[in-house]
Prior knowledge:
This protein is mainly beta. The chain has 7 helices and 37 strands. Residues 55-159 form the TonB-dependent receptor plug domain. Keywords: Cell outer membrane, Ion transport, Membrane, Signal, TonB box, Transmembrane, Transmembrane beta strand, Transport.
Amino acid sequence: MKTINHAAQGLAVFGLAALPLAVHAQSNTADPASAAVELNPMVVTAALAPRTADQSLSSVTVIDEAALRRQDPVSVAEALRGQPGVDVTTQGSFGKQSSVFIRGTGSNANVLLIDGIRLRAATTGAAAWEFLDPRMFERAEIVRGPRGSLYGADAVGGVVQLFTPQGEEGGPRPRISVGGGSFESQRVSASLSGAEGGTRYHVAASRFDTEGAPVRRDGDDKGYDNTTGLVRLSHTFEGRAEVGMLALRGRGSTEFDASGPAEDDFIQQVAAVYAQAPVTDLWTSRVTLSDARDERDTVAPTYRSRFETRTRTAHWQNTLALGPHEVVFGAEYSEDDLGDSQTSGLAFKEERRDNRAVFAQGLLDFQPLTTQLSLRHDDNQAFGEELTGSLALGYALDGRHTLRASYGTAFRAPTFNELYFPFAGSSNPELEAETSGTLELGVRGQHDAWYWDLAAYQTEVDDLIALDASFRPVNVNEARIRGAELSAGAELEGWTLGAALTYTDPEDRETGNRLARRASQGLRFDIDRELGEWSLGASWVAQNHRYNDSANQQRLAGYGIVNLRAGWDFAPMWSARLTLDNALDKDYATARGTEFDPETFASIPFDYVNAGRAAFVSVHFGP
């Protein structure tokens, strides 16, 4: 463990020390303006309105299309691993259950959006990050900190929003990719996009299939397959009115270990239609109707379950532009429906609940002081009313440095499993929502060819939902999460550098223990180099130890993994890529399970191991 910590610290010092070289090299940068655009991207998730990263008054990270192409991750969970403030745990590789912790909060205390549409299982409250194909998206925005006043329930630790391509001006642009590699993995994807006469379109499909790797030492390979399709279409009229639709569907199966062979058949789906129009020169109104599904059919040696979560939402949002200021307000109605969900033949006592909300936000610009003030009221059929709000202040010290301070509240809604799980004594319909308050201080430096961002925060969580001695969920615990994040990036003369250091102290206030499965220290360092028609790159992700249990008795060692990549543009519109994940063949685990021994009647723990070294080669056609 000391070796990993020392290596991580050494890499952090090297990575962050290297970034100021960009300042010295700015005068030699061919186009510093273009670099500034990449390093200070536009973000919409933080404020429901476009703001550059330094104007957002939030801790934000953007994984753009270029980074997704270079790194070519198998899942969205892998793309998020090691990003500032983000901790990912998995129960194996290739489509195995993944949890994303943002700033020490649970995986069901964060929100996943796809083009503004929320996707998660209402039964568990968490998103199935492992089933989302990164090739369907052109960028990801990670906003850290509470966003309950904008997005409602569960936006305690942060929000991740994935954006699908809209289609660029010009004739049809095809893209095709075919590849294969370790663990008998195969992947093919294709897309067609373009825009003409005010109409934009993007159509894509992908297929990934692998025999998989063992999820436990000396175990059998556990396979995974996923077929995903995407259609996005929009049309803008002469009067700036716009209508559009989105449909994304992923379907497949994944094998896992549950005291014997087991398999999940899954469907992940979002669909939406929207209309947007200017009411006046200053007022724009938008209505979105959406449907999101998370379906799972599980067959295991000792049980069978079927979950069919469906969330229908009507969202109305209005934006008023008042000179340098902007006001956003609206209303939302959503309904969670479990349909025919059941486990081992037992149905849930309650299968539906609705939520009504109104929200408002003011984005006020009194340069050099800026303010973001927001408020939201939710009325939920199952657990009652919640009021959340936030206030953020930013002060521009000069043209490059901005101070920010914010305080925000949020809540996590009890899930259907916690409220109504059908097994006797395993649920509690009297649960109240968890509530939280977060104070954050930060400063960002934005330069022509590099940036840096430092933030410190403290989150207090009340009425934390935990299991009592009989494994029944109750509101008993309180948690305090303290942390700090330092991130930086640079673009200079063909080099792309990125570094992130994360410190998190997620403490159960009742016991003094660290919350389960959270690492307290993390590091990520990315380096890429363009060499004419060639490109080379590497990522190093390292984390210290974590505890699998709330009693902090089951310790999982820290780890450091290196991913390598290379690209070759061997002909116009043609390229080849090679990725070598876990290049040093590190044996590591971020979660632990148990199995029942019928001979001793004891529960035997085992580690969920991740895949070893994995090579993947692909050929691509298209821009």
